[in-house]
Specification:
single chain; about 150 residues; alpha+beta; Thiol Ester Dehydrase, Chain A; 5-stranded antiparallel β-sheet; 3 helices; disordered N terminus
Length: about 150
C-alpha cells in the first residue's frame, strides 16, 4: 500500500507560510562526513582536487586531514531546507561562504533561522540565515537562502 502523503494538503510537519515569523528556527540537520562520502561526492561531481581524497597531500599543504568539499557542505544546507519545506515551497536562491575547513569525522550541525518574511515578485517569500558549525562550535559555513511558498 502506498503511504505517500497527498499533494493536495500540507503534512503537519511542513511549514505553513502564514504561521511563520522572523526569528523562527528550522529543524537542524546533523551530518557526519566520512572519507567514503568525500570520495563518492567527488567522483559523482568530477571534483578531483587532491585535498579531498589524498590525506598525505592534504597534510603536506598544511591541513590536518582531507577537506570536506564546500559544495558538499552547501548540499547539506539544501537538504535541510528542502526537508523542512517539503512540497510547500521551492528553494529559489542560495549563497554561502566557507570560513574554516570541515574534515571527515567532524559532526556538522546545519541550522537556519527566518530573517525576513515578505512578498517578492508575487510570491510568498522567506529569507533564511544559514550556518554550519562543527563539534567545536566553529562556523565552517554561513549563508542565506530565499524560499518561495507554493501554497
Amino acid at each position: 500500500m502506498n503511504k505517500r502523503k497527498s499533494r493536495d494538503s500540507a503534512a503537519p510537519s511542513e511549514p505553513v507560510f502564514e504561521m511563520l515569523a522572523p526569528g523562527m528556527r528550522l529543524p537542524q540537520l546533523i551530518k557526519r562526513p566520512t572519507t567514503i562520502s568525500l570520495f563518492m561526492y567527488g567522483a559523482a561531481n568530477w571534483v578531483y582536487h587532491r585535498v579531498h581524497y589524498d590525506q598525505d597531500y592534504a597534510r603536506s599543504v598544511g591541513l590536518r586531514n582531507m577537506v570536506v568539499h564546500g559544495t558538499l557542505q552547501a548540499s547539506y544546507l539544501v537538504q535541510m531546507i528542502t526537508d523542512w519545506l517539503g512540497e510547500n515551497g521551492i528553494l529559489k536562491k542560495l549563497s554561502f561562504r566557507h570560513h574554516v575547513p570541515a574534515y571527515p569525522g567532524d559532526v556538522l550541525t546545519c541550522s537556519g533561522v527566518i530573517n525576513d518574511k515578505r512578498f517578492e515578485d508575487g510570491h510568498r517569500c522567506l529569507v533564511l540565515d544559514l550556518a554550519i558549525v562543527n563539534q567545536d562550535n566553529e562556523k565552517t559555513t554561513t549563508g542565506t537562502a530565499t524560499v518561495y511558498f507554493l501554497r
